[in-house]
Amino acid sequence: MIQEINTQQPSTEILYDAVVIGGSYAGLSAAMALGRALRKVLIIDSGMPCNRQTPHSHNFLTRDGSTPAELSAIALEQVLAYPTISLCKDIAINSVNDASLFTTTTASGDLYKSHRLVLATGIKDMMPEIPGIAECWGISVIHCPYCHGYEYHSQPTAILANGKMAFEFAMLLYNWSKELYLLTNGPVTMTEEQISQLRKLSIHIIEQPLASIRHKEGKLEEIIFDDDTKLALPAMYARLPFVQHSTIAANLGCALTEQGHIVIDMVQQTSIAGVYACGDNSSGMRSVAQAVYSGSMAGAALNRELNEALLKQRLV
Predict the structure, then answer these.
(1) Which residues on adjacent β-strands are paired with residue 104?
(2) Of the candidates 255, 66, 144, which has an alpha carbon nearest to the alpha carbon of residue 25?
(3) End-to-end distance of the chain based on CA atoms, in angstroms?
(4) How far is the CA of 23 from the CAs of 170, 205, 266, in angstroms?
(5) DSSP, residue by residue, 114-143
(6) Residue range 208-239, pLDDT digits in tens
(7) What's the pTM?
(8) How far is the C-alpha of 249 from the C-alpha of 154, rounded, in Å?
């Protein structure tokens, strides 16, 4: 159905102005900016976004409460209405930079060439080996209070974290709930001063390791610890470790931050000339609004770069 929206089909014979790897909010936003600038753009996307089991998306003007699938469907229809944009439903597995020309290979073995590259590949959350967490992820085990906090405000809430980050996160979440349970899943690694401040706010600290999560269709009902004690509540925040969802940035030599995000400048350009990154792979602010903004910035900056290169040639 998606391909019928646009008569411009993917072609291995076309030299694209840009290949956009990843077709969620950041990638589609970058593609739209480029399509409106009359650039030939190919989006390569597997159709498996990381928020596919999240029931509702919030904090995005005009679409507050929409499902991620609804947002993606509208975005795809609008982006593919531009005749210079096409979509390849595949997985990009590598991209090689040869004399400022990028050759991107897909899992199907197709090769696509482009002058520039946009990485909107996202990140992959590393789930702890606690039964039930993966099934609840994005539904009742959540990562962002700005995305989900309102729906669980003033309710008992758990936080799965430890160390400095756990302390800072608990202090932030106190705005949404005064009944907080900080689950360190083992010995506390916070300072005595941090522990003291949390206790003054009546934030409970539980060091007992987690055994499992009891839930119903992803909706948390009870946290079960390895000593068989239980904690009943509707939601738990978790700050999970992550890796880049794709190895393409590393293969190209893009610099990464200490946290593991792709290093970008103010216009989303990476440390490698001609390569831009947007969305979750290059920002700790994981939201639809941030993804759309960063994609739009990447598309506009990429177009300006191409335009300046063309003018330089013609004005010599």
Answers:
(1) 95, 112
(2) 66
(3) 46
(4) 34, 40, 22
(5) EEEEEE---EEE---S-TTHHHHBTTTEES
(6) 999 999 999 999 999 999 999 999 999 999 98
(7) 0.91
(8) 41
Q: Quote the CA–CA distance of 201 and 15 in Å, as a whole number.
A: 60
Phi, psi of 228 (to 5 degrees): 75, 5
- Which residues does residue 45 pair with via DSSP β-bridges, in sequence order? 89
pLDDT band at 264 (very low <50, low <70, confident <90, very high): very high
Give the separation between CA 136 and CA 145, rounded to whole angstroms.
Answer: 16
Check: CB of residue 252 under 8 Å from CB of residue 95: yes
The pLDDT of residue 129 is 93
Residue 315 to residue 8: CA distance in whole angstroms: 32
Residue 131 in contact with residue 38, Cβ under 8 Å? Answer: no
For tokens 């770069």, what's the residue?
305
pLDDT, mean over the chain: 92
Going by pLDDT thresholds of 50, 70 and 90, the confidence category of residue 5 is: very low
